[in-house]
Specification:
With 408 residues, the protein is α/β, with parallel strands linked by helices. Helices cover 24% and strands 24% of the residues. It has 7 helices and 18 strands. A hairpin with a 2-residue loop joins strand 11 and strand 12. The N terminus is likely disordered. Keywords: Cell membrane, Membrane, Protein transport, Signal, Transmembrane, Transmembrane helix, Transport.
Length: 408
């Protein structure tokens, strides 16, 4: 059948890394009610007030007809086709009250590294439905090989303050114009709109290239991890929700602890991240018993440690985060079972999949039930380190006594 041929061809062709499109949510449009201090769009009898020292670009869908407008000293109005400014005496306007001063809200606070201000979309800009695969918090913000979309017919202003001097991206689409080469992006930055749209110490740089490694590429937002978490917690009440399990896990790139399981996989040059993700979704995650489980999978860089000291070098690995919707004493148990199935699959087919090994950490149960996670690598590592320390102290004591002449 045709479907069989499509399946066969997809198996024979090398899997390409799926492009990821992230769309900016806030805007500075005139007709967005939330952009005004009174929570409504100004009407004919209102006095519209823009702060003179605020830099803004404003998109207008329709003609502007309030009685008076105080405009910013540095800004622009982008008019839709057929729109314009009109004179109006304010004698009649349905739904307009006696009038008053309506101020445009401060748009300076919208940060590039706020995960709540981005959404995953298709290349068309259509919102992607939330599925079984999620992203850790650092990867909810555009990564270095992602495509960024600012919706057409929309003005915006975004703060690019960053711990990195340059923020790399694959492409940026603004006002329906796709900028996918360094040259086209450099040309746009020299135009009049860019300074009104972007401000901050981080410089956006379009590369036009996707991830070149079939084993995946790290997101690249780790240097701004604290900034991402601060923005996320500020939006959610300044503190992480209290996990149900006693010893929650802390996945790399995620701001808050989770209950469930994490898997760290070592890989070989034959490993293909996209193919492996598809395998897990189709063969394991789609099983009815795992209906409430969600998975995040990506390449991360884990800092190397020796005797508790963090070195500058890091090790690339594939991190899988599994969480479920179970409650109470059952919290995380479905995720734990899926982790066990994944490790069994690795034991059987790891060599063919390009996986050389894997380790699991689990945190399940509730604080009330007294259950705890198992397979925690931190305990194994801590035991090994403590053994080495005691051994070194013992040898050091013998050497000290020998030099003092107490031992022969």
């Amino acid at each position: 059948t045709p479907m069989d041929w499509i399946t066969l061809i997809s198996l024979l062709l090398p899997a390409a890394a799926a492009a990821v499109y992230k769309q900016w949510i806030p805007n500075t449009n005139f007709e967005t009610a939330s952009n005004w201090d009174k929570g409504r769009v100004p009407c004919a009898r209102d006095v519209v007030h823009f702060e003179k020292d605020k830099v803004l670009g404003i998109f207008d869908f329709n003609a502007l007809n309030p009685s008076i407008q105080y405009l910013p000293l540095n800004g622009e109005f982008v008019l839709a086709a057929g729109a314009g400014f009109t004179a109006f005496d304010g004698s009649w306007d349905p739904g307009c009250d006696s009038g008053g001063t309506v101020r445009f809200a401060d748009a300076e606070q919208h940060s590039w590294f706020d995960p709540t201000l981005w959404q995953d979309v298709f290349p068309s800009g259509e919102l992607k439905p939330s599925g079984r695969v999620f992203s850790v918090d650092e990867e909810r913000v555009p990564c270095r090989y992602d495509d960024v979309i600012f919706p057409a017919e929309t003005s915006f202003r975004v703060n690019t303050d960053s711990s990195q001097q340059v923020i790399h991206l694959r492409s940026i689409s603004i006002m329906g114009q796709a900028l996918s080469t360094p040259e086209s992006w450099a040309g746009y930055l020299q135009g009049p709109s860019a300074p009104l749209q972007f401000h901050g110490n981080g410089t956006l740089q379009v590369t036009g290239t996707g991830c070149p490694d079939k084993s995946g590429c790290a997101c690249g937002n780790a240097p701004d991890g604290p900034r991402i978490c601060a923005a996320l917690l500020r939006a959610s009440g300044k503190q992480c929700p209290v996990p149900v399990c006693q010893r929650p896990l802390q996945p790399l790139g995620h701001c808050c602890g989770v209950c469930g399981a994490t898997i760290n996989l070592d890989f070989t040059p034959d490993f293909d991240l996209q193919k492996y993700q598809d395998r897990l979704v189709q063969e394991l995650l789609s099983q009815p018993k795992y209906a409430g489980v969600q998975m995040a999978i990506s390449k991360v860089h884990k800092a190397q440690t020796f005797l508790g000291i963090v070195s500058r070098s890091s090790t690339p690995l594939i991190q899988i985060v599994l969480i479920d919707d179970r409650a109470g004493a059952e919290t995380g148990t479905a995720a734990e079972q899926l982790a066990a199935d994944i490790m069994e699959d690795v034991a059987r087919h790891g060599e063919a999949l390009g996986i050389s090994g894997g380790k699991v950490e689990v945190a399940t149960g509730s604080t009330l039930s007294g259950q705890r996670g198992s397979h925690t690598l931190s305990r194994i590592t801590a035991g090994t380190v403590m053994g080495l320390l005691f051994g070194l102290m013992f040898l050091g004591g013998i050497l000290f006594l020998y030099r003092k002449g107490k031992l022969r």
